[in-house]
């Protein structure tokens, strides 16, 4: 996307399009203004010329002497231009029918034609074939016998009088309108730069977000752009959350594969083919499960079948016994023969596996697993509560909230990724359950209680 600057001009620039559109509007407006002004000025000049010609007619009538069908005028005419040939001002006096009885010396070689049905005592303004303005006036004069005779006084003037004034006005208008147009375009350019400044600010902030200098659009934008900014911020947050979720799922995948890989390493020494096959199948299930979670776009998935929690606990306990063979662990498992839950099998493996793996890692020798049915917690009824205890040192005071954060471990000297409890917490929260941690009353170490609906 480009915005208009003098250094970068593109037809896709919003500023350039607006400037061109406004320039075209101004051009059309100035053309119409010039046309209207010129036409008005031409009409005014022609009216002024008609009034001057009328004065010339009255002046000729005042000095003319009419006798029968004849007329005589003095040598000194009212306007000196009547006496100069080709001066541009011509006069004729014509009797009916179309007989020129007098013409001014300036009218030498100039012809006159009369209009039909000329109304007496009224002026008629025309333009002849030579582009001259012609004014006709018909009067009746009586001779000594009382007989009336019709005379037509015609005065002509070349059109250069009006044309010169119109041309002068055109030159003046063009200069002024061009100057005003340049000033207005400059003002429009400045206004466009000022009006589009918020868009350039958004582009600048987006570049800062792209380079990691900002996390969202936080500038002061006009009210018209706030909805757009809000949508962009929401989009940025969603994309960042998606990216973070994919990273977390990849970390979860790596963490989920850690226990099966440890079992496989232990099986290499004894070459237990059955256990190796079982763990390979489990690793494949883990990969498919984590990929499914990553593609779910953060939406809670509905369980479609019930899973036996006791079966999963037994499988995990058998696997961890092999992983921590050198610790000679003692597992105490108290649970019903069957405990069905509507939950994803992979979720239960994550919850049980991570909590039991942590218990085995931190305990001295003893790990206790118990399952209770229909517990009530915080005014809610749950389907089951899973309790995992160990006889280890437990979590130090003040560290409980830290271990719920991704990447944090209670003891940095112990090998691990620091995401096991976080994965458990996220899954339990997603399933609508609760995770509770504290000190074991019976074994003295850590105690985890998982409430599942």
Report on the architecture of this protein:
The chain is α+β, with helices and mostly antiparallel strands. The two termini are 51 Å apart. The chain is rod-shaped, with a radius of gyration of 53 Å. It folds into three domains: 64-158, 2-Layer Sandwich (Beta-Lactamase); 220-299, no CATH class; 302-452, Histidine kinase-like ATPase, C-terminal domain (Heat Shock Protein 90), CATH 3.30.565.10. It is built from nine helices and 16 strands.
Order of strands, widest sheet: 4-3-7-6-5
Which regions have little confidence, pLDDT < 50, spanning 5+ residues?
A: 1-9, 296-303, 406-419
- What is the subunit organization of this protein? single chain
Tally the structural domains: 3
- How does CATH name the architecture of the largest domain? 2-Layer Sandwich
Helix and strand run: HEEEEEEEHHHHEHEEHEEEEHHEE
What is the fold-level CATH name, i.e. the topology of the largest domain?
Heat Shock Protein 90
Strand coverage percent: 15-25%
How many β-strand runs? 16
Query: What is the CA–CA distance across the termini?
Result: 51 Å
Percentage of residues in helical conformation: 40-55%
Rg calc: 53 Å
Overall shape: rod-shaped
Number of helices: 9
Broad CATH class of the largest domain: Alpha Beta
Estimated structural class:
alpha+beta
Please provide a brief summary of the model.
The protein has 453 residues and is an alpha+beta fold. It has 9 helices and 16 strands. α1 runs antiparallel to α2 and α6 runs parallel beside α7.
């Amino acid at each position: 996307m480009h915005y208009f600057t003098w250094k970068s001009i593109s037809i896709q620039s919003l500023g350039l399009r607006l400037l061109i559109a406004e320039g075209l509007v101004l051009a059309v407006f100035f053309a119409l203004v010039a046309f209207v002004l010129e036409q008005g000025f031409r009409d005014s000049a022609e009216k002024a010329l008609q009034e001057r010609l009328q004065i010339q007619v009255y002046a000729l009538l005042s000095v003319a002497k009419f006798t029968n069908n004849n007329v005589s005028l003095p040598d000194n005419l009212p306007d000196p231009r009547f006496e100069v040939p080709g001066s541009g001002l011509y006069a004729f006096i014509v009797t009916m029918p179309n007989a020129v009885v007098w013409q001014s010396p300036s009218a030498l070689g100039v012809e006159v034609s009369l209009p039909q049905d000329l109304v007496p005592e009224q002026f008629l303004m025309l333009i002849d074939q030579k582009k001259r303005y012609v004014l006709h006036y018909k009067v009746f004069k009586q001779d000594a016998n009382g007989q009336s005779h019709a005379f037509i006084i015609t005065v002509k003037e070349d059109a250069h009088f009006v044309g010169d004034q119109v041309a002068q006005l055109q030159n003046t208008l063009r200069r002024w309108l061009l100057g005003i147009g340049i000033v207005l375009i400059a003002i429009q350019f400045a206004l466009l730069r000022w009006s589009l400044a918020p868009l350039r600010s958004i582009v600048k902030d987006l570049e800062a977000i792209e380079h990691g200098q900002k996390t969202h659009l936080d500038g002061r934008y006009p009210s018209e752009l706030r909805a757009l900014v809000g949508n962009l911020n929401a989009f940025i947050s969603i994309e960042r959350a998606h990216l973070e979720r994919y990273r977390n799922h990849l970390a979860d995948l790596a963490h989920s594969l850690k226990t099966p890989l440890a079992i496989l390493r232990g099986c290499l020494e004894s070459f237990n083919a059955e256990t190796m096959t079982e763990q390979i199948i489990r690793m494949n299930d883990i990969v498919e499960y984590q990929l499914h979670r990553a593609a779910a776009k953060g939406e809670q998935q509905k369980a479609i079948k019930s899973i036996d929690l006791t079966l999963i606990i037994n499988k995990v306990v058998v696997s961890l016994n092999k992983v921590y063979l050198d610790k000679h662990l003692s597992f105490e498992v108290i649970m019903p023969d069957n405990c069905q839950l509507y939950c994803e099998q992979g979720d239960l493996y994550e919850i049980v596996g991570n909590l039991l793996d942590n218990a085995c890692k931190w305990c001295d020798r003893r790990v206790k697993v118990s399952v209770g049915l229909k517990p009530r917690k915080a005014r809610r009824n749950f389907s089951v509560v899973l309790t995992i205890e160990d006889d280890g040192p437990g979590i130090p005071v003040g560290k409980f909230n830290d271990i719920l954060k991704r990447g944090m471990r209670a003891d940095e000297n112990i090998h691990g990724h620091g995401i096991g409890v976080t994965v458990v917490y996220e899954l339990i929260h997603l399933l609508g359950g609760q995770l509770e941690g504290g000190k074991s009353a019976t074994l003295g170490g850590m105690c985890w209680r998982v409430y599942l609906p």
